Amino acid sequence: MDFMSDRDAQKYAEDGYVVLDGLLSPQECDELRQRMEEIVEEMDVPEHCRTVFSTYHDEQTKTQGNADYFITSGDKIRFFFEKGVFDDKGEFMVPKNRSLNKVGHALHAYEPVYKKVTHSPGVQGIAKKLGLASPVILQSMFIFKKFLFHFLVTSHQDATFLYTEPLGRVMGMWIALEDATENNGCLWFIPGSHKSGITRRMVRTPPGTFPLTDFVGKEQEYDQEKFVPAPVKKGGVVLIHGEVVHRSAENTSQDSRHVYTFHVMESQDTRWSPGNWLQPTEELPFPPLYTD
Question: pLDDT digit string (tens) for 32-46?
Answer without folding.
Answer: 999 999 999 999 888
